[in-house]
Amino acid sequence: MGDRVKAEQEVMTSVRKATNTDETAPKRKHVRNCIVFTWDFKTSMPVWECMKSQPLKASEVQCYKAIITLHKVIREGHHVTIQEALAQTKFLEDLAHGLGGGVYTGWQNYSVLIRAYINFLLAKLEYHRLHPEFNGMFDYKEYVSLRGTNDPNEGYETIADLMSLQDRLDEFQKLVFRNFQPASNNECRIASLVPLVEESYGIYKFATHMLIAMHQRVDGAEQALEPLRKRYNAQHYALRKFYYECSNLRYLTSLINVPRLPQHPVNLFGDDFVPSPITDRPESTDGRGASTPALASASRSTPTIDLEAERKAAEELQRKQQEEERQQKLLIQQQIEIRRRHEEEERQRQMAIQQQMEQQRAEQQRQLEEQQRQYEEQQRLQKQREQEQLAKLQQEQLQRQVQGKMQELEQQILLMRGQHERDQLTITQYNQRVGALEDQIRQLQQFQQQQDASKDELIRQLQEQIEQWRQKYETLAKLYAQLRQEHLDLLGKFKQANLKANSAAEVMGKMDRLQAEMRRKNLELADMMRERDKALADLQRLENSRSDELDRLRNELEDSQDRER
Question: Cα 243 to chain center, whole Å?
């Protein structure tokens, strides 16, 4: 369990490093770690989970490198990898849709390649879903051990579907070449050609073996299998051109040995097909990297044995050809030696006709020079034709790149046109919104003016009420002063009455009257004082309410002025 957790952590690190944002190829040791993990633990789900956790939609380069890594894992990983990949097609389709459901619009121009690469991977997975007997590398011997070639109809359908997948691969590789950038090293784009070369050659070998077996088993194969032979021949020339273009890429040839197909298609009625193996270039790695290929080769021992046998057969054929060429050279040298001795004998025997022999030698020398000149002319013409062919291929490649660039620019123009139309619609909606807001502002201003007018009227009424209460208060104050003065006068009169009273009856009568008058005046004075206190309280309350109302109105005016500003 601890080894599994440690291995998953290493796989997560390898995935992050293989799918970084640098515009370089995913390193082989990181991809190889993911492949070996699938063979060790019989699953590829940690690889998919780590891919989903990466921000692939944020960078075109990161997304493209992730697709390259997934293609190699699906192709070279354990057999269960294909079944698990079939359950992840939704994730791949989501990547093809790009950023937020839209399209990729980065400056590296990988958007077209991303969609095309994912479509090819989906087509490959769909083929494996329909034909589960295939492994990721389309191994013929393993297929025969599982299915056999007894059913011609099934074999015909299998080859037809496989050739359709080969056509999809050919379209994608042409798109990759068209999208090469002149100002870039195109390392990331070239890296995607590595699994395409291996994939296409695996399909080519399987189709060749299968067609040879079907031609030997099917009655009337010359007519029944004619459509397949035509497609096979066309794909042979297309692959030969594809491999020729790949062999001119120095970085690609430093990673793998590009296959060399014969000039003409293999004779499907015979048994003369000897495929050349595709091997990786040696890579200087550390101790861990050196042990990884051993694990991978141990997990896939059968394909290694097949490639070794094919390599030995090719070496044997090359050795026979070299032996025949050596024997032909020896025979030519012997003939030249015999001819030289014969000429020496003739010169000794015919000294008398030396002049004639010299003329003959001169004529022979002239003929040899003429032959040498003709040979050099042929070599020059052949070299010129090769240069013209190379220039023609370069011109075709440049035209494909220009066409790809034009298509991409046309797509960008369409996108910009759609963006312009959306901007115009947004501007129109904005103008309508601005007009509606201006109408709302005018309505608010009118409403504010009405509120200001009503508030001014309310202030005027309050001021009038305050003025009325002030007048009432002044009247009460005057009345109170008058009553106080009368009270003081009465007190003086009371004192005088006390002094002038001679008799007790008059004094008591006057006293009673004065007391009654004083009680009455006191009651009136108390009523007046209550009225005064009530008037003072009402005045204070009115002043407080007026102050609060003025503060509230002042705040509302300031708020309305701030909103208008």
Answer: 29
From CA 296, how far away is CA 370, in angstroms rounded? 60
Cα atoms in the 13 Å half-sphere on the side-chain side of 43 = 9
* Residue entry with tokens 């990988």: 110
Over the Cα atoms of the chain, what is R_g? 54
φ/ψ bin of 341: left (φ > 0), alpha (ψ from -120 to 50), beta (otherwise): alpha
- Residue found under tokens 């997934």: 70
Q: Is 514 helix (H, G, I), strand (E, B) or coil?
A: helix
Contacts of 66 (CB under 8 A, 6+ apart): 18, 19, 51, 54, 56, 95
Residue type at position 506 = E
Confidence of residue 318 (pLDDT cuts 50, 70, 90): low
- Judged against a pLDDT cut of 70, whether residue 400 lies above it is answered with yes
Whole-number Å distance between alpha carbons of 202 and 207 = 9
Structure confidence by residue, pLDDT tens digits, 515-536: 888 888 889 888 888 888 888 8
- Predicted pLDDT at 191: 94
Task: Considering only residues 451 and 509, tell me which one the structure prediction assigns the higher pLDDT.
Answer: 451
Q: Among 86, 78, 67, which Cα is nearest to 135's?
A: 78
- What percentage of the chain reaches a pLDDT higher than 90? 28
